[in-house]
Amino acid sequence: MNLVVVTAGLTQPSSTRLLADRLAEATARRIEEAGGAVEVRVIELRDLAGDIANTFVTGFAGARLRDVIDAATSADGLIAVTPIFTASYSGLFKSFFDVIGNDALVGKPVLIAATGGTARHSLALEHAMRPLFAYLRAIVTPTAVYAASEDWGGDGDATGVLSDRVARAAGELAGLLTRRHPAQNAPEAFEDVIPFEQQLAALRP
Fold first, then answer.
1. Side-chain half-sphere of 182: how many Cα atoms within 13 Å?
2. How many domains does the chain contain in total?
3. Residue 10 is part of which domain span?
4. Per residue in 134-169, pLDDT tens?
5. Boundaries of each NADPH-dependent FMN reductase-like domain copy (predicted)?
6. Is 160 exposed, middle or buried (0-12, 13-18, 19+ CB in 10 A)?
7. CA-to-CA distance for 107 and 127, rounded, in angstroms?
């Protein structure tokens, strides 16, 4: 299955990309543990800012942006991560999902996550990001992940609390994705099935 990660970090390196990578790794690991196979593609919106702006002006997406939109809309699942500015998602993040269209993510499993300088902005996940994807009729995981500056240890390591949230959210997304691919979890076919009439005959005296 295909998992697409959309990250709207503006700097390089960025804590937004760092969180996106942690979520993608954890989700892929859970899918593989369940016997599935997953291909992950990361989309850096920072590199597409000009393409997105041009789409609003011209009404047409260029080839590079069109390829990214196709990847996001055809993916089996999405991980969407944005920095929080002024208590909401970034303008670049919102603009990307504006150009995708209202019907492109219907029924698609999505894990939402965000980063910010302080934990005070964590509610932006619930009052801004979750309603956005509910409007797009995506299926959002119950657990959303927010990472403030204090949630990162030395060398970009996640603290225990953040690691727990990442693992829980990744498990929820992996569960949604594997349920959409039941063939991967189907039990092995029964061998030598005895017809019901034969079983009844064996019970007669």
1. 1
2. 1
3. 2-203
4. 999 999 999 999 999 888 876 556 678 899 999 999
5. 1-152
6. exposed
7. 21
